[in-house]
Amino acid sequence: MKILINTIGFIGDNLFASSVAKKLKQQQDCEVDFKLSLPQPFELLSLNPHINNVYLDTPNKQYDVQYNLNPINRQLTPCEQFQIQCGVNNPSPEFEVYTNRSLDEYVSYMFKNKGNRKLVAYLSNWEERSFLFTKEEYQRGIDVPNLGYGGKHRDIDYIISQLSLRDDLHLIEVGKPNNTNQSDIDLFSVSEYSLTASIIKNCDYFIGAEGGLANLASGVGTKTIITDDFIHQLYGWNGVIEKCNEPKLGPKYYFGEENHIALDPYLTDEQVIEHINKLIK
Question: Rounded to an integer, what distance in angstroms lies between the CA atom of residue 3 and that of residue 59?
């Protein structure tokens, strides 16, 4: 049986959707191709041994079954929802990202002189994916457009500057800057994303907010620490997009809380620094 999966959404959604291939092949003898909604993870999905072919345009091939993935909610993890949409009998929340071995080894070579310092990747656009509010402000629910219930973002430059004071850490900025649209692509988008995956894979921790790179980090096996205010603002019990008591977003829901921490959304910047310093040992 030949199957085509037409993905939907952001880069992270394509990573989540890749989990479908292994599940389908466990159920039946089949070939599974993917047509991506965005090109950045093209190489990473091409390296997935459970996926036969990856396309950016609709292939000129005949398929027995085509699954057009639909938007998801926050009541169940993304992987489980995509798997259910494709008829998987035993859905589960985890996924695996397969990286370029040559890039992995090159990044490891470049990091070899960092000594015993912990390598910590941090999200470049962390600021725009953060909101600073108290529990009272969140409950009151007066939204300032783009700034959330507290009317401001976290001071990420300050957080990073304070973490940089530790001589046992080496911080590495990853990802695109604030105000970058994922649909803005160029000739280097695929290779840059593959290199980013290998950089994060070689790090001990990823810190930032929920999103594509946090998901990528968990998928390559790197420990994550995220500020949970972004999810809380959008999808929490008083979220502006969807009200959900426990939105199933973030690495802790995909791989458990032993290696993936979501910080209390009501922490101050000083408290975020304190918690991260305690967690990175």
Answer: 12
List alpha helices for the chain, DSSP H.
11-17, 19-27, 42-46, 78-85, 101-110, 135-140, 156-163, 189-201, 212-219, 229-235, 251-255, 269-279
- Amino acid making up residue 248: K
Helix (H, G, I), strand (E, B) or coil at 132: coil
Measured distance CA(13)–CA(40) in Å, rounded: 12
SS3 156: helix
Closest CA to 125 of 184, 198, 168, 78: 184
How far is residue 244's CA from residue 234's CA, in Å, rounded to a whole number?
9
Q: Which residues contact residue 233 at a Cβ distance below 8 angstroms, ignoring those fewer than 6 apart?
A: 131, 133, 138, 148, 149, 239, 240, 265
Cβ contact 40:11 at 8 Å: yes
Tell me the C-alpha distance between 142 and 152, whole Å.
12
Rounded CA separation 65/86 (Å): 10
Residue bearing tokens 């965005």: 38
Q: Residue 43's closest CA among 18, 20, 19?
A: 18
**What are the phi and psi torsion angles at 122 (to 5°)?**
-125, 150
At 154-208, the pLDDT tens digits run 999 999 999 999 999 999 999 999 989 888 999 999 999 999 999 999 999 999 9
The pLDDT, as a whole number, for residue 281 is 87
Q: Please tell me the pTM assigned to this model.
A: 0.96
How far is 194 from 43, CA to CA, in rounded Å? 7
Cβ count near 208 (within 10 Å): 24
Residue 239 CB contacts under 8 Å (≥ 6 apart), including other chains: 232, 233, 247
What is the rounded distance in angstroms from the CA atom of residue 52 to the CA atom of residue 61?
13
